[in-house]
Amino acid sequence: MPIPAAAAEALAALLGPRFSTSAADRDLHGQSESYHRAPPPDAVAWPETTDEVAQVAAICHAHRVPLIGWGTGTSLEAQAMATQGGLVLDMLRMDRVLEIRAEDMQVSVQPGCTREALNTELRATGLFFPVDPGANASLGGMAATRASGTTAVRYGTMRENVLALQVVLADGRVIRTGTRAAKSSAGYDLTSLFVGSEGTLGIITELTLRLHGQPEEVAAAVCGFPTLEQAVECVTATIQSGIPMARIEFIDADVVRAFNTFAGTRMHEGPHLMVEFHGAPASVKGDAEAFGALAGEFGGTGFDWATTPEARAALWKMRHNAYRSCLALRPGATAVVTDVCVPMSHLPAAVAAAAEDIRAEGLLGPMVGHVGDGNFHAQILVMPGDAAELAAAKRVATRMAERAIAVGGTITGEHGVGIGKRPLMRAQHGDAVSVMAAIKQALDPESILNPGKLVPEVN
Amino acid sequence: MPIPAAAAEALAALLGPRFSTSAADRDLHGQSESYHRAPPPDAVAWPETTDEVAQVAAICHAHRVPLIGWGTGTSLEAQAMATQGGLVLDMLRMDRVLEIRAEDMQVSVQPGCTREALNTELRATGLFFPVDPGANASLGGMAATRASGTTAVRYGTMRENVLALQVVLADGRVIRTGTRAAKSSAGYDLTSLFVGSEGTLGIITELTLRLHGQPEEVAAAVCGFPTLEQAVECVTATIQSGIPMARIEFIDADVVRAFNTFAGTRMHEGPHLMVEFHGAPASVKGDAEAFGALAGEFGGTGFDWATTPEARAALWKMRHNAYRSCLALRPGATAVVTDVCVPMSHLPAAVAAAAEDIRAEGLLGPMVGHVGDGNFHAQILVMPGDAAELAAAKRVATRMAERAIAVGGTITGEHGVGIGKRPLMRAQHGDAVSVMAAIKQALDPESILNPGKLVPEVN
What we know:
2 copies of one chain form a homodimer.
Chain A: H1 5-15, E1 19-20, H2 23-28, E2 43-45, H3 50-63, E3 67-70, E4 87-90, E5 97-101, E6 106-109, H4 115-122, E7 127-128, H5 139-145, H6 152-155, H7 158-161, E8 162-168, E9 174-177, H8 190-194, E10 203-210, E11 212-213, E12 217-224, H9 228-241, E13 247-251, H10 253-262, E14 272-279, H11 281-297, E15 301-306, H12 309-320, H13 322-328, E16 334-337, H14 347-360, E17 367-370, E18 375-382, H15 387-406, H16 425-429, H17 432-443
Parallel strand pairs in A: 2-4, 3-4
Antiparallel strand pairs in A: 1-2, 5-6, 6-10, 7-11, 8-9, 8-10, 12-14, 12-15, 13-14, 13-17, 16-18, 17-18
Helix pairs in contact in A: 1-3, 9-11, 9-14, 10-13, 14-15
């Protein structure tokens, strides 16, 4: 459904050249990093203020135009794709760090600010924002997806690190959720409701984030294991022992092969853990030794310590580029990315079953994981146009999700629902899905906000 | 409005003697620990299973009977009082610890289980549940109120420590929110929505809680300060310095006087901090020394270390009994208890302004605070029946709340809204109140769940 002329005129009058229906702009905002494909949106807008977002929403609401938020376009379940047409709202011009309140360990930012840009601004304060999904995503997008990543095991996810939001509702009203207080019992937790709602309940126009002290000492290392099972069992034992890991990442032999081929490493082609410790020098030393001893019990060998900040940066850059390196293992391929998260005690069995399933289907699916919180991914490589292969990859993904549900886990630990996980929502949540639908209908009765995403059985 | 005969018959048929309309049972469930007064409920029920709760809800829904959850009756804003009549659901017979999953650091409990009963069951596991509001409250009630208390500065509030819930909805449907995974991005965060909803959206019938490792070493101490301002500034400096306090509690001279009079202490009658450190022996030693040095800078003297577990238990028991000790300062009095929480940098000014305001109104209002997260309370003592005094106390409470809002804080850090904070909700939340109302109406269209509480402008 193209945008009604009256709506397009109102949007053009409001935004001038920052409203576009050109094919180039639309195509740029119709891309996806994963296997999902959809036609481009009907138009793109680049608001610069909350008030403009509110006016855009009011126009879209009046004319029933779907409104889809867009950050850096790095979501993996098509959250930012205009699957029902409509207007994509590119938030990247609202990218300012509004106020750093160092004494309260808080910052207010606009949604288009990326996590790396924020941390660059914070460098001199002794504080940092820890949530790190790998991609240099926008903070608004990270909140909308309830993103997490490598450091969540220590610092929590966006759920724990967003203190308050400013949100534009479906009809253009602007609200603030939460306060600057560290905690509150003053009514429904609307901040938590909007975090993870993937733009289906409102458009985030400002975020108040918790900051953390930059650790006095940081140590990072890579360590190899004879088998996948031993590596993952080492993770479970580490977490259960209470060693306060800042990062504990699993990579399998295929990922190591990708690193060796495309990132210039010369690692043994077997499963590895990548770990990091934060804290006072004495405790970092103690934690690293305790981990080393545990790793040894599970056959861990060949510790390679990144001793300089540059070496650590290179290490985590390599990890963050794993997605692209693994894509390069099969030129031309795209990926079906799984994202289950299970209770720690079920992690070894879940990873082993996934590996076996991928092998049995004859697929190539390198696995990585933020395994310290039970979350791991298979990046199943499929060739565009190969329907049989895509179907096989989706079968594996569905079985991984079903096994996760069976042990009390979740179908998505951090990537969100979008359209990819939507068919599995009822299997995970049962009748709670109808509560989600009731909330969606209460807050967006015309269903203009990212329609067709997240909540199943609602248009 | 009495309960319709058909509803009473259905409830009696379902529950037998566990449904009562006797004056004694009703009176017992019409009490409040604070100044709020309301007639007793029309009836009381003691369900023993989730299915019974579901059937009770269905009956109440069909007959539009208000349904109010009841735990230990220790809420401070009349959350459990039947202000519009109806049925009080006493959850204390659903008090079992259902499953301890030590390897996942989780436990499943029924809502009537108290935090002390849970920790007694956990003693042998090396794990504990940290949230500690003072009262030995039921865990269901703590979740419903989004309670926190003395340890929130280190371990978080109920928001951070409830992983999932089973909830009976207004019409008797039963849902599960959340999973056993450490994190999830699978849709709206219903767990966070029900935590803190004070029984207005559903009745909690099961909780999955996060557990923490019992600290290897614990150290606790009391330390006096020359002035209130210096004590509170020491707190702000401590938190900003990053010392990982397990507890940091402020008590003013009036509270010390209550302790000296009723708890047998012989402390100097001035402001004090009560602190606790958790961790490995070396880090506890280092943290305690770092705090000691900081306290010295702010005039802290007379450190009294509780070196044995018994001494520590006595110390925190005294703190937990502060409410009753302070009530005893004025025999026959009841209390208007304030509960603001402000950003750390505003804490010293907020505490000083409250003290001055109480003094100016000629009131006695001992102050305590979980000041490590910016939360403090004045327990303003009023004589029942003295309308002028009650009005003065409410004026002070309202001004404290308004000052908190003005600096980005909250009207309630942990006690919740109930009926006491309801008139201030719009001042804090603005139009976000209408989002709360929309959610309330979507999930409880007949408004049978704890009607008249929390959400203003909704019956």
